[in-house]
Specification:
With 429 residues, the protein is mostly beta strands. Helix content is 2%, strand content 44%. The strands form 6 sheets. Strands 10, 11, 12, 13, 16, 17, 18, 19, 20 and 21 form a 10-stranded antiparallel β-sheet that branches. Strands 1, 4, 6, 8 and 9 form a 5-stranded mixed β-sheet that branches. Strands 22-29-28-25-26 form a 5-stranded antiparallel β-sheet, with no helix packed on it.
């Protein structure tokens, strides 16, 4: 097994500490809600032993915990420490007993607990919508005249994470037609970034009733020319945002603050989304800022219903259909991996540092980089030849200039001999 000393850690010793911890004597696992299997963060886990060991930890955003054990034969009890309103379900006792031996020193123990958090739908949302933006030349809402059937600038529609499922239709379908450039964009892989509320207007939306009024998503797709335009971009990247500000949509609203809004930037280079933008739905024409356009016809609807099986967090599908796919299970710690995989970073959310693990089945050229939500490269963590086996790389949550990054969501892109695997991490700096 090889581990890399890479740029991005505070020190070489810190890297070795983080890398070694994943393979030392330990107990690890997840804490879930009983029915939906939603991971629970912030749950306290305590490990005690008959040889004087007493250590506690808390679950991260994926409900995951990891507690290192002393490297000696001993018997332990790992227990969930219920918080306010929480109670153990499986096991009903709320604890497991186990003993280490010279050959058995890595343990996985999951817990299922009831918690007030299990009934919340916060952070889950999906979108259906469609509409158009019309030119103001005619001075009418519909943008039509006797000589022109339509002077619309854009026309769009589709769904994002239908029914809160990231797997249905690979996250949904989203289309936009740029009438001026005669381009048709189709998003065929979609991942929701976040849901939230716009400052300055009442939170949530009324039809359907949801606690959110905006949704942001990203992914990949293609762009083709229409109406005689021969352009063809077989792989493009995009970032979108819709604001469901009121009902009954933009047609029924005369208050500008109450009209639904839409932003989309489609670009060809994920490391330079501003400079490689080929389609932009935006107010000021600057792809570097997110300024959603007020739509004049149509309706955006954000939903949280049908979310009993919430989207799986941590794993992000590859941006190309022929890329290697990830397994949702945690890879076994072995020096001879059977396949290519890229595990979710631990911890996430992260504060101070986080660690990534990946495996390559044979010696490969490997590049591991960090990107922000706009697709800009923040840091390059690794670029070189990797031997076959499992590798561990740490990131101290600093950019390429050594400055701490802002809190938010970042994408981790692993390139291995032409294949691309992605993960994401939430930074809490």
């Amino acid at each position: 097994m090889r581990r890399f000393i890479v740029r991005g850690l505070l020190s070489a010793s810190l890297l070795m500490l983080c890398a070694g911890a994943a393979f030392a004597w330990h107990v690890e696992g997840h804490v879930f809600c009983p029915e939906t299997k939603t991971p629970l963060s912030g749950v306290e886990i305590r490990v005690t032993s008959d040889c004087g060991f007493d250590e506690t930890g808390t679950t991260d955003g994926d409900g995951y915990y990891f507690i290192g054990l002393p490297e000696k034969v001993c018997c332990f009890r790992v227990a969930v420490v219920p918080g306010s309103g929480q109670s153990a379900v499986d096991p009903a006792s709320g604890y497991y007993d186990f003993c280490t031996t010279e050959s058995d020193y890595e343990f996985t123990r999951d817990f299922t607990i009831e918690s007030p958090e299990c009934g919340k739908k916060e952070g889950l949302c999906w979108l259906t919508g469609g509409g158009a933006k019309f030119s103001s030349i005619t001075g009418t809402d519909l943008g039509q005249s006797k000589r022109q059937k339509s002077t619309k600038l854009y026309n769009w529609g589709g769904n994002v994470n239908p029914g809160c499922s990231p797997t249905a239709g690979d996250g949904g379908q989203w289309n936009t037609i740029d009438d001026a450039q005669k381009l048709h964009f189709q998003g065929f892989h979609i991942e929701v970034v976040r849901c939230g509320n716009v400052d300055g207007i009442p939170p949530g939306s009324t039809s359907p009733v949801t606690p959110f009024n905006f949704i942001e998503w990203t992914g990949t797709g293609r762009v083709k020319g229409v109406q005689g335009n021969k352009a063809d971009y077989p792989l493009v990247y995009f970032f979108g945002r819709c604001e469901d500000r009121n009902e009954p949509g933009s047609n029924g609203q005369r208050d500008g603050a109450g009209k639904d809004r839409y932003f989309l930037n489609v670009y060809t280079d994920p490391s330079n989304p501003t400079g490689s933008s080929i389609m932009l739905v935006d107010i000021d024409g600057d792809p570097a800022t997110v300024d959603p356009l007020i739509i004049t016809d149509g309706n955006m609807q954000i939903h949280i219903s049908s979310c009993d099986d919430p989207p799986t967090t941590g794993l992000v599908a590859s941006p190309r259909a022929d890329d290697a796919q990830l397994s949702p299970s945690t890879p076994a710690a072995t020096d001879e991996p059977a396949s290519l995989w890229f595990a979710a970073p631990r911890p996430s959310p992260a504060s101070g540092s986080t660690t990534m693990r990946f495996s390559v089945p044979q010696a490969s050229d490997v590049q591991l980089s960090v990107y922000d939500l706009m697709g800009r490269e923040v840091a390059e963590l690794m670029n070189g030849r990797a031997a076959a086996g499992i590798h561990t790389v740490g990131w101290d949550l600093r950019d390429g200039m050594g400055q701490p990054v802002s809190r938010g969501i970042y994408f981790l892109r692993l390139r291995v001999n032409g294949s691309v695997l992605n993960q994401r991490v939430t930074v809490m700096n």
